[in-house]
Amino acid sequence: MVVKTLLDSRELAFLIRQIDEYIQVMEVLIRKTPALDTGELALARNLRKELLVGKQAERGRKSVTKESG
Questions:
Q1: Contacts of 12 by beta carbon, 8 Å cutoff, 6+ apart
Q2: DSSP secondary-structure letter at 69?
Q3: Contact (CB, 8 A) for 9 and 56
Q4: Who's near 11: CB < 8 A, 6+ residues apart?
Q5: Structure pTM?
Q6: What value does the CA radius of gyration of the chain take, rounded to a whole number of Å?
Q7: Which of 11, 22, 33, 51 satisfies CB 3.0 to 4.6 Å to 7 for a cystine?
């Protein structure tokens, strides 16, 4: 099941910061206890990449809108 949600730039920035914090914490925990590596860290990194790409696309749309308007 895929759920798509539109986020404004503020929500997107908040979500990216939260994922970054999660990744930092998990990297430390996995270094201490490798058994904790269940693949969630890779999923979080992939999600962060997708969100960053979406954020860049949103910036592009805003600049086009500003130039047009």
A1: 51, 54, 55, 58
A2: -
A3: no
A4: none
A5: 0.62
A6: 16
A7: 11
